[in-house]
Amino acid sequence: MSNRLNSTPNDLRAFWMPFTANRQFKKAPRLFVGAKDMYYTTHDGRQVLDGTAGLWCVNAGHCRPQITEAIREQAGELDYAPAFQLGHPKAFELANRLVDIAPDGMSHVFYTNSGSESVDTALKIALAYQRVKGEGTRTRLIGRERGYHGINFGGMSVGGIVGNRKMFGTLLTGVDHIRHTHQPDKNAFTKGQPEYGADLADDLERLVNLHDASTIAAVIVEPVAGSTGVLIPPKGYLQRLREICDKYGILLIFDEVITGFGRLGTPFATQYFDVKPDIITTAKGLTNGVIPMGAVFVTSEIHDAFMTGPEHLIEFAHGYTYSGNPIASAAGIGTLNTYRDEGLLTRASELAPYWEEQLHSLRDCPNVIDIRNIGLIGAIELAPIAGEPTKRAFNAFLKAYEDGLLIRTTGDIIALSPPLIITKEQIDELFGKLRKVLLNNI
Ligand SMILES: Cc1ncc(COP(=O)(O)O)c(C=O)c1O
């Protein structure tokens, strides 16, 4: 056994693990000690096919040389530079590279360290923008039921997953929600975008009638909702939201933390759906998950609105110690180089038909009540075990892990989002393993 495999810690008590069933985990730990391309290595020396790109972030696959090298070099050259009133070249270089691949009109980038911070930054930009424009009464933020926008107070407030909200008091005030778009009675087993549900965007107009447009700053949605269990926008839905926002002067924020960087076969979902938001939040795939980093994209109209007043004054009182950190910036550049050299930002569009066919072939497995897909995203919704919601999917997760496949579950839904380097043979391996799991009386 190599040293690496011997490095298993023998006391797991001190680490309170995030979004984890801690007691269950610590009784039967699942530890990764290595990773390369599409596979993890476990502490007991097994290979596990990564069906989820880590947590929707390792889009270029694991331990990619250009990223590793960029980090190594940067760490030896300039480790940290203060983020406020000072800079370093790579943060600017990365911002320009990001704007180059961003949807038309997105001209400026504000750095954060995570998806949650990108969301809270976007909400603050929206509120401050309305104010600098002279529309300071627009303080209300609108989210969507079942939305996931991270776990900070802003994102939690506009988010719509009850389990993530109910423990934390009153959250932000002045927030409302439109309904989610999940309609399995009408859309179950749809391949790609569902036919039914564009009219659910009209909920925004209902909220305008309730609160008045003059009180609403912005609406935030995930173009494809991921963490709630993969909800694909019905045909015409996002277009309709854009129309209503335009009609009432409401900013549209797309949370692209999981759809950014090639997940749908275009650099951003915005380009896939051909709907232009005013602000885009990103993280995850920006650095291939390797170093924490997020970025919020805005239009020049929004950016320029802040660039007034005396030049020695800070225009926007917001930022993080690690905004645009040198090593994160280097990782971002290494990641974009990898995406460019390997065509990864569009690769999902080539694989999507095969992915869709193989995913939907699981329709005949026991307890499968819906299958959904778009780009290189898939979801399999299972009938809950009576009286024990979430357990069937969790059982599937445990069994898959044992059988050498990493899947992700939320509620009784299995979500799949492999690295964009996956081959057709690995897609076969993934669904072959998953079929065995689903047939295993979970
Ligand atoms: C759409 C969306 N927004 C925000 C986040 C939060 O990102 P982070 O966990 O990096 O804070 C996530 C994480 O999954 C996400 O899917």
From TrEMBL:
UniProt entry keywords in alphabetical sequence: Aminotransferase, Pyridoxal phosphate, Transferase
Cofactor(s) the record lists: pyridoxal 5'-phosphate
BP GO annotations: biotin biosynthetic process
SUPFAM superfamilies documented for this protein: PLP-dependent transferases
Family matches, as Pfam families: Aminotran_3
Range of residues in the leader sequence: none
GO molecular function annotations of the record: adenosylmethionine-8-amino-7-oxononanoate transaminase activity; pyridoxal phosphate binding
Coiled-coil annotated residue ranges, if any: none
Family note: Belongs to the class-III pyridoxal-phosphate-dependent aminotransferase family.
Protein name: Aspartate aminotransferase family protein
Source species of the chain: Ciceribacter ferrooxidans
